[in-house]
Structures are given as structure tokens and as C-alpha cells.
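Lab notebook: predicted structure, single chain.

Context: the supervisor wants predicted structures on file for every construct in the current expression panel, including those that have not yet been purified. This is the next one on the list. No modifications to the sequence; it matches the entry in the shared construct table.
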Amino acid sequence: MANSDASDVLKISTKEVAANPCSRGPGRTAYKNVFGLSVSVMLLFCAFQGLQSLQSSINSSGGLGLVSLAILYVFFVIAGFVTPGIVKILGTKYALMGGMVCHFIYVASNYYSDWYTLIPSSILLGFASGPIWAAVSVHLTEIAVKVAPILKETHQNLIGQFTGILFLFFQLSQIPGNLASSLILLYSESNVTSENCTNFSATMIEHNYIYILISVFLLFDIAAIVTLALTVDQLPRETPFRLTKNKFQVFLLTPLIDTFKVLVNWKMFFVGFMFIMAGLEQSFIFGTFTQKYVSECVGVSRVGFMIIVLGLTSAAMSALLSRLLKYVPRFVFVIAAGLINSGLLIFLVTWKQTASYLLIFLFPIGWGIADAIWNTISSSFVGILFPRNSDPAYSIARMWLALGFVIGFIAANFGDIAARVYLLLAVAVVTVVLYLVVEVMVYLQSKRPQPPLAVDEINLTELDRSPVSSSPEPLNTDDAV
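Prediction complete. Output recorded below exactly as produced.
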């Protein structure tokens, strides 16, 4: 798609909007980008989600699967410090394109999973994951803030709506990949059900079935790259790389300083626990629950079916949230997510580990509802809190998310089930409390008089320093104390 379409979205002045208030061209272009981006993300994670949910089962020898996932997210954290610079240099579209190629390499390395193949590809994907998610979030936030006046919406509502659409498709990615894995592995599995949860049939799967599965996942990655190339526009950048004289200053040093400024912001520290919680609860369901309650109890082929239930529930809840957030305060959903997670975890502690099809299909329903809330609310909340610094803010947020995965997968490899449950319970309580503190502080600040601004065009982030729109100014809480 030509970049001129993206410019139509991002360079609309308020005078043009007033002259033609019924124009829907920029709106259509915006939604084309949102849905194109969401579909490409869905296809990309069809492969990764399928592999991630199986790593603890098919690569259980020596803990290779869980160790590789932990290493992946460790380098995800490290990459967060240079992610803003990468996104500035490449732009959102090409940062995503490069990340998708790294996904392809990671999936291909599973053709022969060993320490010298899986660990290097995990490191590569860890570095690529930061730019991928930062580019996705920045792309949605930029478009939402730009077209909000044209669509007669607040930028907060549009960020929530676009994020809800994204995570609807993201959660749907659980279905195709896991359906493929379950159907393929179902033919290779011998021992299925173990009342005492001692079934280790995953280690006896023939390699031919693994090769077929990896080939299917690679096709998903190729489809994701093609979809991104055809439907998503490269957003215009204020400082093109080739025209910039002091490249080190503009594209590395300044973004790194901005990232550290956001990192030490108290709001980001408090909200960061939402991302840690999201990482912990996802690593628990993908690492601990799939291995201990599904694979070892009813067979590895049922892992995919369980994840499909999780994905369907999360997708439905994400779609519902994108609408409900207009009418129901955010804090209601966050408290509900904390209560759901806590209730299910307490149930696991008190329940004797036995083979139960009822458990593996009912538990993911409740968990999926909470998962959708953590993902959607946390991402949209960062866009609301840091509208002028979305690049470093989303990078730091994804670092917190990756940290949650690291802690979760390390705990899954070394701690017993009870210890993992109590850790997650404690983090859930702390997360809800800290979130409420930020929400109250932001509400109180919004009641303070805001200085009038002379505005001409719709402002966005540090990537676009043009004058701001004469529509109501987004609440700038970046520098609040």
C-alpha cells in the first residue's frame, strides 16, 4: 500500500476536518491498518503460540523447552533498552517485518531442537520481540490519536478500541496453531490418560510428526509476512535515517535516555506490575498447567485443545472489552481479573492433581477472561498515561511483560506447583493495589486546571513533533509527580 494513504491519516489538519466533517477516508485507512496489522499478528503467533504451549512437553528432557523460553524472555528484557531506537530507524512496519523474519528462523530451528539450535534462535527472537511489540503498540497509538477528532471519539476510547481489536485477533491465534498441533499429535500419541498424572507420552512422539507440525507453523509465518507487506502502511517519520546527520544521537542515545526517563517514572513502575502479572499468568498456563495438568494427565495432544478454549475465551472477552470500556470504568475489570485469577489458583492448591477433562476445559475459560483483561487494559493504559512518549513507554512495558515470563518459566523449572501458585497469588494482589493507586492519582490530576494550548494539528508522540490539534488535549501525565 502506498505511504500516501498513511500520510492522509497522520497529516490531517483541523481546518480540513472542519471543511469536510463527513469525510471517512482517513477513518477507512486507519481501520485498514488496524485490521491488517491485527491479522498479520494473529498469523505470526499461530506458530509461536503453538510452539510455546508445547515446549514444556515435547522438549522436557533436561528442561530444554522451559529454559529456552526463559532465555527468550531474558533477551526480550535486554532488547527493551534499544527497542525505541530500532523502531525510530526502521519505522513501525519494517521493524515488524524484521521481527517476523526472526520468528521464522526460531520456528525453523525446532526441526531439530537441541541446546545448540534452540538456544541461539531463542536469543535472536528475544531481541526481535521487543521491536515487534513496541512497533505494534506505537502504530495503533499513533493512528488512534490522529484520527480521534475525525471520528469524533476521544483518543482514550480509540486506543482501547484498537487495542481490543488487536488482542481479539491475537487471542484467536491460539486456535489454528494449537488445532493443528492437537490433530497431528493425536495420531502419534500412545498412552493418553493417566489417573495419577504420570503420562510422559510426549517424549515418545515420532520426529516425522514434529517435522509436519513445524512445516505448518512456517506456513503461518510466511502468511503473516505477506499480509503485513500488503495491508500495513509505513507511518511517516519526522527524521528519516538517511537524512539525519547525527545518527548516534538521534536514533540511539536520545531514545535510550528517553527509555530510562520512562523507566524511573513512578507510574510506569506501578503499572509495570500489570505486565509482570500478565507474563506470570501466561507462563503459568503455558508452562505449568499444560505440563502438569494436561500433558501428564490426559496426554500431550490435548494441550492444543485446551489452549483453543483459552484463546476463544480471551478473544471473545477482548472484543467485549473494546466496547464495554466506553461505559464501565477500567478499575472494575482489573479487580475482576485479580479475583478470577486468585479464585482459580486457590482451587488448584486445594484440588488433588488427577486426570480430569472437566478441569482442563473449564479452567481455561476463567483464565482466558482474566488474561484478556490484563492484556487489553495494561496496553491501552500505557497509551493513555504516556501519549507523548509512547515509544519508550511501550518498550518498557514489554520489558516488564518479558520479566513476568522469565520469572514464571524459571519457577516452572525449579519450584513445585504450590510455590508457583503462591507467587502468582501474591503478585495478583500487589498488582491490583498498585494499579488502583495510579488510577486514583490520574483521576485527581485530571481534575486540575489544564493550561490552554495554541493548537493547529493533531499531535502524537516524540516521532511526530508537529503542533497539536485544537480538539481537546489528551491528558498529559508523562511528567506528573
